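Hey, can you fold this one?
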Amino acid sequence: MKSEWLIKSDNKNLILFFAGWGMNPRPFKHITSDSSDVAMFFDYHNADVDLDGICRCSYDSISLIAWSLGVVAAELVCRKHQFGSDKALAINGTPYPAHDEFGIPTKMFDGTYDTLSEKNLKKFYRRMCGTPRNLEQFLAIAPSREIEDIKEELGILRSLRPPATGTIFTNALVSKDDRIVPPANQLKYWNKLSVPTTEITGPHYLFNEHGSWEELLNECNEDR
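Sure. Predicted structure:
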């Protein structure tokens, strides 16, 4: 696993962001914060990460945001390190990577893995972004990684299993137009665990519609 500071300005608050599959920092560098340092995790070939080192500074609060298959990684890594946060937000994902009721339908997940190519990755991006405008914006900042590298990462994520009980997440955000992780599967999982869930209009990749990390965290506090 890799980590990189998106924002490091000696702020009083810290946000830990677990990105989705196949990502690097490029699609998220435009998101700002006036009050938080932001550390990003990605490239989930293993669970090795120095959480204690990243959180060594004295922060007033620590929040966790995990998106897509980053929800899978965050659940396992934070439990492994016995790491807790003041707020943990899951966005368009669950701790199940492939599951017909609670995650990405297995046929879709395995089809993506089996047919992964440069051409099919662009098809995946279209589904992920939802609209031509969102896709155009994403492609301008899309991550640049080798196909074999992200295919290996996807296979590793496919093999992971969620914890038997409970969750680290305190809130969930579900995009109604998500074409990667079906909203119904997300809602079914989070409702099963009684995790407060907020539905919003938008696609799987929603970061072009949010100007700051705090705006994302505050989505859960708004009445909808």
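The mean pLDDT is 94. Let me know if you want another pass with a different chain boundary.
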